[in-house]
Automatic annotation (TrEMBL):
Domain HAMP as annotated: residue spans: 223-275
This protein's encoding gene: afsQ2
UniProt-recorded name of the protein: histidine kinase
Keyword annotations from UniProtKB, A to Z: ATP-binding, Cell membrane, Kinase, Membrane, Nucleotide-binding, Phosphoprotein, Transferase, Transmembrane, Transmembrane helix, Two-component regulatory system
Segments of this protein annotated with the region Disordered: 506-527
Enzyme superclass (EC): transferase
Record-listed E.C. numbers: 2.7.13.3
Membrane-spanning residues: 31-53
InterPro entries named in the record: HAMP_dom (IPR003660), HATPase_C_sf (IPR036890), HATPase_dom (IPR003594), His_kinase_dom (IPR005467), HisK_dim/P_dom (IPR003661), HisK_dim/P_sf (IPR036097), Sig_transdc_His_kin-like_C (IPR004358)
Organism annotation: Streptomyces glaucescens
PROSITE patterns cross-referenced by the UniProt entry: HAMP, HIS_KIN
């Protein structure tokens, strides 16, 4: 049973392959059809012309021979009859005339001595009769023609082709010159018709063979032409998948070979361009990462000093001179801002380098949002609408970063109260953060997640780094989720976060890709 099913599946696969290769939009099928139509047109035209020429030649040759013999018999035998012969004489003479080599039937018509019309047929009483002769032919035979310089005889030989019960016949008639009986001849053309039918069948078979041959030639030509095109398509797909070292084997000097060379040159140029861009991008990321690391050391010392200064500012005894207090507060705030910027830059470099990884845990979404708000003292400014019991397997730290950026952005630019709502949608957790501010301008909406984007060049410098929403979006993407920004019909901006309830599959796939990249890098170093 298994072997039979395997055979059926194999046949189905082969049939699907053939049908896909001959789909109506394929170049192969169009080439076969065009070749077939050209061959069919040429073969049918040649066969029709050959059949027509052979038909005319066969019928004309047979017709001329029969008419010539009939005319001779009329002159030799019918011309020897008396002016008023009897029926027996006509019957005897007609039989003699029909006994020739052409095998035609003869009917003689004359006037006896009493003025009666008598007939004599080589086919007997039930054979060829005067009713079998077309009336138009009888009229033409019996019509007397005027004698002129170009017409020396008052009567001529006339003939006509007829069909009776599907059998073609040649009918002819004439009168004896100088007086005598009128003779009619009936000749069956069935043997010639059979020969012509055999010829038509032969030409039809030749046409069919020509059509099959043209289809085979078209298939061979299509294979010759389409094989390089197929290889080019496969190479283009591989190039589109990022395999920039893909090249085509070039052979020959025709147009397809030139196309392959052009593809190889384009692929080489693209590989070089991408390598240069990757090198510049890597250098840029390394510079940002190195700069961030280098800044952390002095920032640690500066932060420690600013913490001391901040404690002095809060000391009731007034340890700081009131004249320099504004400057100290500015140093403290800017140090915090610089520290946040460095941390954000380091986070961005991890995303760009592809080294950011998820550390998953089972979390209650409502508890996680409450903890985020409580840690930043936003309880009075945020209205939370979230039921407990909505669990998800996510990275708690990254979820906290996303929520902090979205809620903080709403409080900073939109104004309180900020409403955070949570709901379940199939296999997703949907968190909406809405503020009651003026909303986001339509021309700014497409760019709210861009790094360092400013809605206006003249906008005063804000306290943020311009990376918060970008980092939030990257953290959503690494979970396999998404963040969208829009304006609420009731006023204010709405940021909607969608995350899968279980990001385990995304984490596993990222881990496999990281392992593959590490293996490829190790192999490259070993080579």
């Amino acid at each position: 049973m298994t072997d039979r099913q395997g055979g059926i599946r194999g046949w189905t696969a082969v049939r699907k392959g053939v049908l896909s290769g001959l789909r109506w939009t394929s170049l192969r099928l169009r080439l076969v059809v065009v070749f077939g139509l050209v061959a069919l047109t040429a073969a049918v035209s040649a066969s029709a012309i050959a059949y027509w020429l052979n038909r005319e030649a066969v019928l004309t040759r047979t017709q001329d021979a029969v008419l010539r013999d009939f005319e001779q018999e009329m002159q030799n035998r019918a011309g020897a009859l008396p002016e008023h012969p009897g029926r027996d004489e006509l019957q005897h003479t007609a039989g003699q005339m029909a006994a020739g080599g052409q095998q035609f039937t003869v009917l003689l018509v004359a006037q006896d001595r009493d003025g009666r019309t008598v007939y004599g047929s080589s086919g007997g009483l039930n054979g060829f009769s005067i009713e079998d002769v077309p009336a138009s032919l009888r009229a033409a035979v019996n019509k007397r023609q005027p004698l002129t310089a170009g017409n020396r005889s008052p009567y001529h030989l006339y003939w006509q082709r007829t069909v009776d019960d599907g059998t073609p016949y040649l009918v002819a008639g004439t009168r004896v010159i100088g007086g005598g009986p009128t003779g009619f001849m009936l000749k069956s053309l069935e043997p010639e018709e059979k020969d012509l039918n055999s010829l038509a069948w032969s030409l039809g078979i030749a046409t069919g063979l020509a059509l099959i041959g043209s289809a085979l030639l078209a298939q061979a030509a299509a294979t010759t032409v389409l094989k390089p095109v197929h290889r080019l398509g496969v190479a283009a797909r591989r190039l589109g998948e990022g395999k920039l070292d893909t090249r085509l084997r070039v052979s020959g000097t025709d147009e397809l070979a030139d196309l392959s060379r052009t593809f190889n040159n384009a692929a080489a140029a693209l590989e070089k361009r991408v390598a240069d861009m990757a090198a510049r991008d890597e250098a840029s990321r390394r510079f940002v990462a190195d700069m961030s690391h280098e800044l952390r050391t002095p920032l640690t010392a500066i932060t420690a000093v600013t913490e001391v200064l901040e404690e002095e500012l809060e000391f009731e005894g007034g340890g700081i001179d009131p004249m320099i207090e504004p400057a100290v507060r500015l140093v403290v705030s800017e140090t915090r801002r610089l520290n946040d910027l460095v941390e954000n830059l380091m986070e961005v470099t991890r995303f760009d380098a592809g080294t950011a990884r998820l550390v998953l845990d089972d979390v209650d979404v409502a508890d996680q949002i409450t903890a985020c708000i409580d840690a930043r003292a936003w309880l009075d400014a945020v209205d939370l609408d979230a039921e407990r019991g909505i669990h998800a397997r996510l990275d708690p730290r990254r979820l906290d970063v996303i929520l902090a950026n979205l809620i903080g952005n709403a409080l900073k630019h939109g104004g309180s109260p900020v409403r955070v709502s949570v709901r379940e949608d199939d296999d997703e957790v949907v968190i909406a953060v809405r503020d009651h501010g003026p909303g986001i301008p339509e021309d700014v909406l497409p760019h709210v997640f861009d790094r360092f984007y400013k809605a206006s060049a003249s906008r005063p410098r804000s306290e943020g780094s311009g990376l918060g929403l970008s980092i939030a979006l990257e953290n959503a993407h690494i979970h396999g989720g998404e963040i969208t920004a829009a304006n609420s019909p009731e006023g204010g901006a709405v940021f909607t976060l969608r995350l899968p309830k279980d990001a385990s599959e995304v984490a596993r796939r990222d881990a496999e890709e990281a392992a593959e990249q590490a293996g490829g890098a190790a192999k490259g170093k070993g080579a």
